[in-house]
């Protein structure tokens, strides 16, 4: 029944469909098709689904910024570090790491780590930035 197109259309017609959080008519944070985040939140399966989707997006950002060949030739640890950065910052902010990106494309991972640490992001994230830089160094 949960996949019944008629039922889905009815509920979407009554609840609406929104891709961003909004406050419903009784003040509850809501998303999607009437999902009450304030009272119900998300299940572990839903959190895992969102995380997997966001990791795919972050990986795509890395391939776009560093180039497919450069990214895929990096060790798994370095890929993980870059994906973590993309996950955290998104493409527009990660794209601002011009010197780090150039160092990665040149295969200079120590300089890339130094450039990551020489940023406002590093001062904002502290331990995360140090861990990422260590992973970039290999």
What is the approximate shape?
elongated
Domain unit count: 2
Estimate percent helicity.
Answer: 55-70%
> What is the number of strand segments?
3
- Strand-residue proportion: 5-15%
CATH topology of the largest domain: Lysozyme
Beginning-to-end CA distance, first to last residue: 51 Å
Q: Using the 3D structure, state the CATH architecture of the largest domain.
A: Orthogonal Bundle
Separate helix tally: 8
Top-tier CATH class of the largest domain: Mainly Alpha
Assembly type of the shown chains? single chain
What is the average of the pLDDT values? Answer: 97
- Rounded radius of gyration (Å): 20 Å
Summarize the entry for a quick read:
The protein is built from 8 helices and 3 strands. It has 138 residues and is mainly α. Strands 1-2-3 form a 3-stranded antiparallel sheet, with no helix packed on it.
What does this structure look like?
The chain has 8 helices and 3 strands. It is mostly helical and about 140 residues long. A hairpin with a 2-residue loop joins strand 2 and strand 3 (about 35). Helix 4 (about 75-95) crosses helix 8 (about 125-135).
Which terms would index this structure?
single chain, 138 residues, mainly alpha, Lysozyme, 2 domains, three-stranded antiparallel sheet, 8 helices, 3 strands, elongated
Strand and helix layout:
Layout: H1 5-15, E1 18-23, E2 29-32, E3 35-36, H2 44-66, H3 68-73, H4 76-94, H5 98-105, H6 109-117, H7 120-125, H8 127-137
Antiparallel strand pairs: 1-2, 2-3
Helix pairs in contact: 2-4, 4-8, 5-6, 6-8
């Amino acid at each position: 029944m949960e996949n019944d197109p008629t039922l889905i259309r009815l509920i979407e017609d009554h609840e609406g469909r929104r891709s961003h959080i909004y406050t419903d008519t009784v003040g509850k944070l809501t998303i999607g098709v009437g999902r009450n985040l304030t009272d119900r939140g998300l299940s572990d399966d839903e959190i895992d689904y969102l995380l997997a989707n966001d990791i795919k997006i972050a990986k795509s950002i890395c391939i776009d910024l560093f180039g497919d060949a450069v990214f895929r030739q990096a060790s798994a640890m370095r890929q993980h570090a870059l994906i973590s950065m993309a996950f955290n910052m998104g493409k527009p902010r990660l794209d601002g790491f011009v010197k780090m990106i150039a160092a990665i494309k040149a295969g200079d991972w120590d300089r890339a780590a130094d450039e990551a640490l020489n940023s406002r992001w590093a001062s904002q994230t502290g331990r995360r930035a140090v861990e990422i830089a260590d992973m970039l160094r290999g």
